[in-house]
Amino acid sequence: MSGTFLGMPAFPANAARAVQDSQLRHNLRKATHTIRAKRLSTIAEVPDWRELREAAKAVKDATLRDLDRHLLCLEEQVTATGGHVHWARDAAEACRIVAGLVRATGETEVVKVKSMATQEIGLNEALAEHGIEAYETDLAELIVQLGDDRPSHILVPAIHRNRAEIREIFLRSMPDAPPGLTDEPAALAEAARLHLRQRFLASKVAISGANFAVAETGTLVVLESEGNGRMCLTLPETLISVVGIEKIVPTWRDLEIFLQVLPRSSTGERMNPYTSTWTGATEGQTFHLVLLDNGRTDVLADEIGRQALRCIRCSACLNVCPVYERAGGHAYGSVYPGPIGAILTPQMRGMGSPLDASLPYASTLCGACYDACPVAIDIPEVLVHLRARAPHPPAERAAMGAAAWTFSRAVRLTRAQRLASRLRRLLPRRLPGPLSAWTDTRDLPEVPAESFRDWWSRTQGGPR
Amino acid sequence: MSARETILRRIRAAVADAPEVAVPRDYRTASGAGGLGGSAVQDLPGLFAERVDDYRATVLRAGPGEVAGVVAERAAARGVERLAVPPGLPEEWLAGLCDVRLLRDDPPLANDELDRAHGVITGCAVAVAETGTIVLDGGPGQGRRALTLLPDYHLCVVPAGHIVRGVPEAVALLDPRRPLTWISGPSATSDIELDRVEGVHGPRVLDVVIVGN
Ligand code: SF4
């Protein structure tokens, strides 16, 4: 993947461009609506979904609360079962560790299972600088890599491409694509199978992420669909897994919750086709685990923001988000798009760039993401919290401060509303000065002659 | 300071004020707690068969003495001439096969040999009714992980007594120290327009034979 997110303009500009692209909008709409319906029906058949969600949330909170202890336990277990554990403070350090491990094997090619953590740290590009070629093996990642494109979805990075576009990419960039390739999904999948088969059989080193790491036993868990994960985890002599420190669950038993909520929330299936678990060096393999911080401890330090670390990357919040559906994943300028990206990226990278500072605003606060989230991350709450932390122009800051003062006491609000009603004929249609930017894209609501609160206390809700 | 020390110190500073968390386990657990009455499923093999079928795998039922016949019929139907066999598989399951070359994985077959096999036959450690999942743990009759990965056809024999209600029951029975493979239907992808299509890298055809009631 040579596409980069660096130096992208802020979200509004990206989104404005994306909504002009009717093919993109069509692809996204079709895909997200398919998955929404499937998710709802597989969740509806689970009688204890609410209880599972409560438990999933609590397990993750408990993990974060004692993360140091769990990490040490994980390290001890992985080491005791023959694996090697490495710690990386940031992306550069993680890339350096992985490149060093690959070079030590003498290999110059590696196969990769789709992993958000390795995308986040830009591992493929870093390996290329060391003369190591990384081959993505997940179908969607392959589409992105061959198309010299960027991922736009957590689970299905090529969601912005339809079957006809995928066929074109394969014919153009896959030397061994069958000449009569059609755009039937089964034919496209077959082409990928043939393309990667020999590579799987020949590769000596694989790089993966993990969905979960069990502290108590040192077990790693990867959920997937295609079998490329199994190929990478099983066949090569050396396996290197790059895992964010928040991927831990304390006990083996905790998987009974996550193996239920994750597949149903992500692809809307009762279970994904393949889940692999392994503990330490398995079946004669050499195993390295790289534990990655890269901004996660900054997120952890924020009392409200830290709930973002519960995320199990199911992508349900993307699939239900009206903003994501229209703007697409690229507009978020990060490997984590959609609602979760809007709260995770600015916390992990900070809000120094215009793009990152604009992300907490890439939402209508409709709350669909919170309802869909299997670990109950209150994304709207975190968005509002981050908006307050984002750099603001002085006029806006003053207005927000006044609003906070007014809304925090009922009596002040009542007084302010009565004053506004009395003066309503005098109010302008546009806000003055720097605040006019707000009314450029919105109609200023009319102030009613009587506030809701006054109407309610006068009528008690009117005739019923 | 080492990266390890730095990260651990950052974590301790970050969560110093975080409250203790108790985990409520009010969902349906393996011990039958959870109080939702969901464990009332009587016909586990029936539910398992229905859920496996939903993944577009083929499900067959066999009486205890009929396994060899069903296995032979399946192998013929799928055109299998070279069948990989893990150590420890009950010999009587293979008794009906003729004109099929058995590739015994003992000593282990080379990967390209395995790649040329048409299919593989295994048992399983546990099966999950609600999700239509088979779990292999590398024990007798299941083999190492590559065995059920490289051949394009997987024939899995599931004794009815191995079928449990849900995921919690399976997790409780399984040993995390063994490498586990949870299989729910044939290899598939949802990467093209988020629609499940069968068949990428793993076995593209899965037949499941449930033995007994
Ligand atoms: S925030 Fe919640 S819904 Fe979104 S990807 Fe993470 S776990 Fe899934």
Automatic annotation (TrEMBL), chain B:
Gene3D superfamilies, per the entry: NagB/RpiA/CoA transferase-like
A Pfam match: LUD_dom
Residue span(s) of domain LUD: 112-211
Origin: domain of life: Bacteria
PANTHER family found in the cross-reference section: LACTATE UTILIZATION PROTEIN C (PTHR43682)
Protein name from the UniProt record: LUD domain-containing protein
Organism the protein comes from: Sinosporangium siamense
